[in-house]
Design goal:
Elements (H helix, E strand, L loop, with lengths): L1 H21 L5 H14 L13 H12 L4 H9 L2 H4 L4 H8 L1 H14 L8 H15 L2 H16 L6 H21 L3 H15 L1 H13 L1 H21 L5 E6 L2 H11 L10 E7 L2 H14 L1 E2 L5 E2 L12 E6 L5 E8 H9 L15 H6 L4 H6 L6 H7 L8 E5 L5 E5 L4 H8 L1 H5 L1 E6 L2 E3 L11 E5 L16 H32 L5 H6 L2 H8 L5 H10 L4 H8 L5 H17 L12 E3 L7 E3 L11 E5 L5 E5 L13 E6 L1 H5 L7 E10 L4 H11 L3 E9 L4 E10 L2 H12 L4 E6 L1
Parallel strand pairs: 2-6, 13-15
Antiparallel strand pairs: 1-2, 3-5, 4-5, 5-6, 7-8, 9-10, 9-11, 12-16, 14-15, 14-16, 17-19, 17-20, 18-19
Helix pairs in contact: 1-3, 2-4, 3-4, 3-9, 4-7, 6-7, 7-9, 8-10, 9-10, 9-11, 10-11, 11-12, 12-14, 22-25, 22-26, 24-26, 29-30
This protein binds manganese (II) ion.
Manganese (II) ion binds next to loops.
Length: 731
């Protein structure tokens, strides 16, 4: 044990030395104190490899040092497992090492409690976002990545089922995060390690293939490097050139995607030319393309248009020496550093300098964050104040099975229920959030575990629309409410129709059975009886329309009309009167002239009226208070009056069409009451149009046939006395 501890302390000195080289101001006392504390707390614990447990936090700190993080992060690296695996508390850490260190350890501890087990890309994406959102500070994520990397490096001591699970999680969650942060070496190493444990056969096969031709390949690499270096220096460009085989996973993916063998994978080799100036990237590219034939469609300019994670470089593929396809990347040293270190490149190197604008553009997704902290002179201050605000408009919530659903900020349990399944949403009566029972409108927070409570008798309600946040829930609720309404309308329509049929001594079921109802339905514009019943229930179709198709009325009216028509045409020498026009108007003592009742005001016998001689359509009769009269030619206006005979025989069948508008509450039974009042007054409805408003009101417009004004006014009075009716007017 003595010797093992000695070794660890030697390693500690080594790492501190390394840190001091790039960051002379590092707080090595804090780091040593953190090591001593961690060593004490983890005493007696060993890793699967048999090493002292402390070797793990120490190597995690080494990775953090690679990433050039600050003293607090280094100390937190040493302490990152103390809260989870020992008696240590976060408060204790705060007291001993300060709030910053305690905050970082707390953050990593919370992340390590997340159990990620998924292969679905959408789920994985939610997990990644959640991890970033939960971290609140970029350093927490970087710590987590360092922890994961060391665990992956030492995974050979783990049982194989764990290797597989952890590797899948790394590939799904952590290497994409490293990629997002732009730390390419970390991403590549995580990928290759995962690949090795997930697909060992493929991995070792590729490794063998790569190494089989190793000597050959190495001499080829040396040759290409030499050519490129000379090419650059001949043209006055000082450049560093590297060559290497591409990472195994990317070779494997290419083989999978293109369904090819290793031998068929071209450009297994990638070369990198690193120059000083941006313009030299393009000059270098020109030289390369001049020397070797470029492969069409392979050139990419990430210098002019950086990738979202800030990556900049020129990429091209060419046919190199020995007709070998090779990939060449050209970038400046600064671009290279950003590519390798990503977000890490942005902190300590900037010591004493403000963050340049250029970087803002490069890290588009960090743009806002940085802008907020632009004035921070001290990069440490910048770092400390960078709290992750990404995805702040989303929350991530667990199902009891450990799936994650991403929802907009402010989303409720009901939104979550609909995110799971439509039926779960419909039957949702509440939820258990983190074990506590809450109402359906309870707002969810990131990290909540939510279990939906359902009841088979629950029905979606219109009120739900007032608090749900997701479009999905909104649409589903609307549909359900509409369907419910349709069902109620069908029932109501059946009821109304039954009443009307009763007068003819029958009922819906009977005419349904003998097929007459279907005939009448199809004769109207409907496709099904259900559709027709719903329309009657809504009040759009009056039951008489359907009933009259089942029991057609006698046709004596038509005869009479044609007689009148002849009479009129004799007087005016025009075509006969249109259907429905009466003959109750007297002009200069002449009865039965061709008359149209104006559609704008629909006069009925009893109304004060004037006549207007139209061109070709006979006499048109308006109410004297009709607004339209003012716009008509006064010389064509003539005085008219209602024939005495007509106005005294008011009990007759109405033929004058009038529009009546009824403002009322949106209540199912009401329409039936209104139509009942019309028919009680002897008024027939020929058309109805119903409009419901947001505030539960309805505006129903009826086209009715009345004999005269008295009859109309009687009906309107009756309707205005119905409970729920606000106002009745002639439209
Ligand atoms: Mn750990």
């Amino acid at each position: 044990m003595e010797q093992a501890e000695q070794e660890l302390r030697g390693r500690l000195d080594e790492i501190i030395g390394k840190v001091e080289a790039y960051q002379p101001s590092v707080d090595s006392d804090l780091i040593r104190k953190a090591f001593d504390f961690g060593f004490m707390m983890h005493a007696g614990q060993t890793r699967k490899s048999g090493e002292l447990y402390m070797s793990h936090p120490l190597e995690v700190m080494d990775i953090i040092a690679e990433l050039r993080l600050d003293s607090a992060s280094l100390a937190a690296g040493l302490l990152h497992d103390t809260v989870e695996d020992t008696e240590t508390t976060v408060e204790e850490l705060a007291e001993l090492f300060g709030e910053d260190v305690a905050f970082l350890v707390d953050g990593v501890t919370k992340l390590s409690k997340l159990q990620v087990n998924t292969r679905e890309e959408a789920q994985a994406q939610n997990f990644r976002k959640m991890i970033i959102a939960m971290s609140r500070d970029l350093r927490v994520i970087v710590l987590k990545l360092a922890d994961r990397l060391h665990n992956m490096r030492t995974m050979k001591h783990m049982p194989s089922h764990k290797q597989e699970r952890i590797s899948q999680e790394t590939l799904d969650i952590y290497s994409p995060i490293a990629h997002r942060l732009g730390i390419s070496w970390l991403k590549t190493e995580l990928e290759d390690l995962s690949f090795r444990y997930l697909y060992p056969d493929a991995y070792f096969d590729i490794a063998e293939q790569v190494s089989k031709k190793k000597r050959e390949r190495e001499s080829f690499i040396r040759e290409v490097i030499k050519i490129l270096k000379e090419l650059m220096s001949e043209h006055g460009i000082e450049a560093e050139v590297h060559g290497r085989p591409k990472n195994f996973l990317s070779i494997y993916r290419k083989m999978q995607k293109q369904q090819i063998d290793f031998d068929q994978v071209f450009d297994v080799l990638a070369f990198r030319i690193i120059v000083d100036e941006r313009h030299q990237c393009y000059e270098g590219l020109g030289l390369v393309h001049n020397l070797w034939k470029p492969i069409p469609g392979r050139f990419k300019d990430y210098v002019a248009i950086p990738k979202p994670n800030g990556y900049q470089s020129l990429h091209t593929s060419v046919i190199g020496p020995q007709q070998e396809r090779i990939e060449i990347q050209i970038r400046t040293a600064e671009m290279h550093r950003v590519a390798e270190e990503g977000i890490a490149a942005h902190w300590l190197y900037k010591e004493g300098k403000a963050v340049p604008d250029q970087d803002d553009q490069a890290f588009a997704w960090l743009h806002q964050l940085m802008e907020e902290h632009q004035d921070a002179e001290d990069p440490h201050e910048f770092l400390e104040s960078v709290k992750i605000d990404l995805f702040h408009d989303e929350v991530y919530v667990f199902t009891p099975n450990g799936d994650v659903k991403g929802l907009p900020q402010g989303a409720t349990c009901l939104d979550f229920a609909f995110a799971i399944h439509t039926e779960v949403g419909h039957r949702c009566v509440g939820a258990k959030v983190n074990g506590q029972i809450v109402p359906i409108r309870h707002e969810l927070s990131t990290g909540d575990i939510c279990e939906i409570l359902t009841n088979p008798n629950q029905k979606p309600s219109k009120d739900w629309l007032s608090f749900v946040k997701t479009g999905r829930a909104r649409t589903k609720i609307r549909n359900a409410v509409r369907e419910e309404q349709r069902e109620r309308s069908r029932e109501l329509g059946r009821e109304i129709l039954n009443k009307e049929l009763k007068r003819h001594g029958t009922n819906v079921r009977a005419v349904e059975r003998n097929g007459k109802l279907l005939d009448a339905t199809l004769q109207s514009r409907f496709h099904s009886i259900d559709e027709m019943l719903a329309d009657v229930g809504y009040g759009n179709t009056v039951p008489e329309t359907i009933v009259s198709k089942i029991f057609p009325p006698e046709e004596r009216e038509e005869e009479q009309e044609s007689k009148i028509g002849q009479l009129i045409s004799r007087i005016t020498n025009k075509q006969p009167a249109p259907r429905g026009s009466g003959s109750g108007v007297i002009v200069d003592g002449i009865d039965n002239i061709m008359v149209n009742y104006a559609k704008c005001c629909n006069p009925v016998p009893g109304d004060d009226i004037v006549g207007f001689i139209t061109r070709g359509r006979g006499l048109s009769v308006h109410r004297r208070d009709c607004e339209k009269i003012a716009h008509l030619e006064p010389e064509r206006m003539i005085g008219v009056s209602w024939g005495e005979r007509r106005s005294q025989t008011v009990k007759k069948k109405g033929t004058n069409s009038v529009n009546v508008r009824v403002y009322c509450t949106d209540k199912p039974g009401l329409l039936a009451n209104i139509s009942q009042s019309f028919s009680d007054s002897g008024v027939n409805i020929s058309q109805a149009h119903c409009l419901t408003t947001e505030d539960q009101r309805a505006v129903n417009t009826f086209e009715v046939l009345v004999a005269d004004l008295d009859q109309l006014q009687g009906a309107m009075k009756k309707i205005s006395q119905i409970k729920g009716v606000y106002r009745v007017e002639r439209a």
